[in-house]
Design brief:
23 strands, globular, single chain, four-stranded antiparallel beta sheet
């Protein structure tokens, strides 16, 4: 964990605003509170579990989730993180998560952090189970072990603080490199990559990572070539991409937040250079479901929708993928700052839906291929039609448009 030696001062501003409806009559007051953000750039990764929760559901156990609150200088609390709901258990283990320390405590390591435990109810009337308070400094002491907190009703809460440098080495990490089997990212990359690589003529794939500290100086990047070569980020075939991915895991330190926009913009810039229909670009993104820059990502998608580009997002792991569904745009076209995307260019598929429990891997990959490629033809045609680009004559010696894959 990186320690900050100096932090920006905390400035609290309160501004009362009076609502006016009927002339001459006050309709209430809203108080706007603002606090200057510190310059702390630390990232905290932690995992929590609980023991002996109260049974709140009449026909079951409990459906617990956690709510983290940052304390404010005026004594109030602001929600800064919610965990997923774990259904029907009194001993839940929540997924590890990453949060900027600035969001957790504004860089003040000793500021109070409050954690509430609730039992989820469908109608939104969640039952309060208990709470405990801590601080980032106390949480970080659990780097080599874990912190135990007592919550009312004899419940115990254990919090494991995970240094970002070792997160990929945990068996629970989707990036964990087991000697016995490929991790979730590698499985998805191999399965989807082998499907789409046949549509590329030279089998050279630029491959990028997003969210890591890079050697030798630890500079943070959200769009870095996996092979470390900015001038030539290409990998030979999907096997080359996989090999480079494993090498990169050993060389870089995974680091949040998870920003999509830089990678999308990088590929969009390449697509913007060739809009005559001779080339079409496909960006494959593999993610665990977290998007830290959703506003910027939506803007990047809207901007890219006018270019010869399609985006395939494959979600790995057990997380909820609501943000990915929103980007997919099948129901509601993606918009940003009042602008609708010119075309629907995003296709999202959750990889877990294609793991065949019967062991028939061929059937799983066939279904995956169908859904991954389902929208690409229409997306390509919609771009060509929007630019008035006619198909070349069947007997022409000119090469067909080449699909470029970015991983």
């Amino acid at each position: 964990m990186k320690q900050q030696s100096g932090l920006a001062p905390f400035v609290i501003t309160k501004l009362p605003l009076i609502f006016l409806g009927i002339p001459g009559k006050k309709c209430g007051v809203i108080i706007l509170t603002a606090e200057e953000l510190s310059n702390c750039r630390d990232i905290a990764t932690m995992q929590l579990c609980a023991n002996k929760l109260d049974k709140k559901d009449f026909f079951g156990k409990s459906d617990p989730f956690l709510v983290f609150y940052r304390s404010n200088e005026d004594g109030t609390f602001t929600i800064c993180h919610k965990t997923e709901v774990i259904k029907n258990t009194l001993n839940p283990v929540w997924q590890s998560f990453t949060i900027p320390v600035r969001a957790l405590c504004n860089g003040d390591y000793d500021r109070t952090v409050k954690v509430d435990v609730y039992d989820w109810d469908r109608d939104g009337s969640h039952d309060f189970i208990g709470e405990f308070t801590t601080s980032y400094r106390e949480l970080s002491r659990g780097q080599n072990q874990f912190n135990v907190y007592e919550v009312r009703h004899n419940m115990e809460m254990a919090c494991y603080f995970i240094p970002p440098s070792s997160y990929k080495d945990l068996p629970t990490s989707l990036h964990y490199m087991s000697p016995y089997q490929m991790n979730a990212y590698a499985m998805a990359l191999k399965a989807v990559g082998e499907i789409i690589q046949d549509y590329d003529s030279d089998k050279l794939f630029p491959a990028y990572g997003f969210g890591a500290k890079l050697p030798p100086d630890g500079k943070i990047s959200h769009a870095f070539p996996l092979n470390g070569d900015n001038d030539n980020p290409n990998c030979v075939g999907i096997e080359g991409v996989l090999e480079t991915y494993f090498q990169s895991l050993r060389a870089v330190q995974l680091y949040g937040p998870t920003n999509f926009a830089p990678v999308i913009n990088k590929v969009a810039n390449c697509a913007a250079e060739i809009t005559d229909g001779s080339q079409y670009f496909v960006l494959l993104m593999i993610t665990d479901g977290v998007i830290s820059d959703m506003v910027q990502t939506k803007e990047a998608v809207v901007n890219a929708a006018s270019l010869p580009l399609s985006i395939i997002i494959v979600g790995v792991g057990p997380a909820e993928f609501d943000a990915m569904e929103e980007l997919d745009g099948d129901e509601v076209r993606v918009s940003s700052r009042g602008r609708l995307a010119e075309r629907d260019i995003v296709q999202f598929v959750p990889f877990r839906d294609y793991i065949d429990r019967s062991g028939n891997q061929v059937l799983s990959m066939a279904r995956l291929a169908k859904d991954v490629l389902a929208e690409i033809p229409d997306q390509l045609l919609s771009f060509m039609k929007s630019r008035g680009i006619e198909p070349r004559p069947a007997l022409s010696s000119s090469p067909l448009p080449q699909l470029h894959r970015h991983i």
